[in-house]
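Hi everyone, sorry if this is the wrong subforum. Our group has a chain we'd like a structural model of before ordering constructs, and none of us has done structure prediction before. Sequence below.
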Amino acid sequence: MIPQKISTTAGPSTPLRVAQDDSFVEATAGAPHFVRGMGLFSATAIVMGSMIGSGIFIVSADMSRTVGSPALLIAAWLVTAAMTITGALSYGELAAMMPKAGGQYIYLREALGPLWGFLYGWTLFLVIQTGTIAAVGVAFGKFLGVFFPSVSANHWLWHIAHVPALPIGPMVLGNMDIGLNTANLAAIMVIALLTLLNTFGVKLGAGVQNVFTSAKVLALLAVVLVGLIARNAAALAANFGPGWENFWAGSGWHTLHPVQVGVGGPTALVGMVTVVAVVQVGSLFSSDAWNNVTFTAGEIENPRRNLPLSLVIGTGSVLLLYVLCNLAYLSVLPMAGSAGATTLAGRGIQFAAQDRVATAVMESAFGGIGAKLMAGAILVSTFGCVNGMLLAGARAHYAMSRDGLFFKSVGKLSARSGVPVNSLWVQCAWTCLLCLSGSYGQLLDYVIFAVLVFYILTIAGLFVLRRTRPDAARPYRAIGYPVLPAIYIALAAWICVVLLRYKPQYTWPGLILVLIGVPVYLVWKRLDTAMTEPGTES
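Answer:
Right subforum, don't worry. Here is the predicted structure as tokens:
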């Protein structure tokens, strides 16, 4: 194979710039290269393990408070399932067409140009990937506190400062504590440990992922089984009876639902379609990160086959479990509840303690031991989620570096393990800083909208590449093209419009974070050009 240089300046209409094997740049010089050490099972484990964190155990409480109807709660998860699986079917074509390390970053770069790839990679590193890892890691620490009470977000080892709330229009910035407490210390230790394990090679990282993904899937299945076995007659009557009337109550086309506009803003009355779009903030984000497997394409065996399969199998399996989990919640706890109630049934799904719906279900079935069982399941889930996202994210940052759009050292592979060790540690360092800053929760809220926009752009890129690269090899073609991808874009665009209108605190900050990347891109490009001009050192 003749070595080629990856271009970062060509436009969307140019030929594909990356060779069939993304490792060619280093392999042809006898230098380290990626090892294709993950099969279909490992690839699917990354999809499922990255999706399943702590969200499914919590977000249904807030969603139910907004929709106020069992039918609409299930409908919201079904919309998420339809969109996610449709997105995975579309990404499958792009993944089979360009099985390179970097995944979605590569797809955006090839279809829309290097600026769009950079904006995605910039936001991914700044908060999408690292902020999610930080949030999941701190969730691990908080649930560890169920077994070790000294591990708590309120147990400060070094409290640096409290940043007061700063209202800006519909947004509220600040209102966070900066420093080291025992909960985020646990998170930092887990993140550092898993980063270290992943530096020893993709097979070890994938092995850890396989074990913990299998365990967390079994935990979700256990919640579903508990819902079937420990069904509560009062909950079934409240949520489904008589004759399913209560299930459909509040879900009529003409029923209006109150939604608060922004933070502290006025309350607006919206219809069924709009309220289901509003609560997608919870269900879509709980189902996110399914695209992470595309970042690892350079290390997957037979990626043109296994990448599309892992996307479809992984997303389909997880979303089926999510819908079944919510049906289990409705079988054990009444949906409506009171914040001041002292019993599980009285608080219901809407006001489960700290929104921990799954924990309330397990407590209902097993008493006090149920809370510990659920805490253990969430520890397994969050541990596996952190590992999968650490493994995958480092490959995207590596791909950016190879294009001259990130720190040069991040684009190097270890001679011993064949993994981007520097990328792993840079990612680890920034994630740990987010843990200390206390800002990860707000940052995640801010990028939900931006994540959805990048999904729209990537699937739009499928249409662009069908037109500009009609002769490119496509071992798999998106099922339902062009109808299903177009439906995804329409649904996602509608959700974006609704969020812009009713949840501006989730939209404008995310857009600002993305747009800041434009001048950063221009500066980075100028520096990269200056360093690679003839007569200069690179």
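For your construct planning: The chain has a mean pLDDT of 88. The beta strands are 156-163, 166-168, 171-173, 176-181, 257-260, 267-270.
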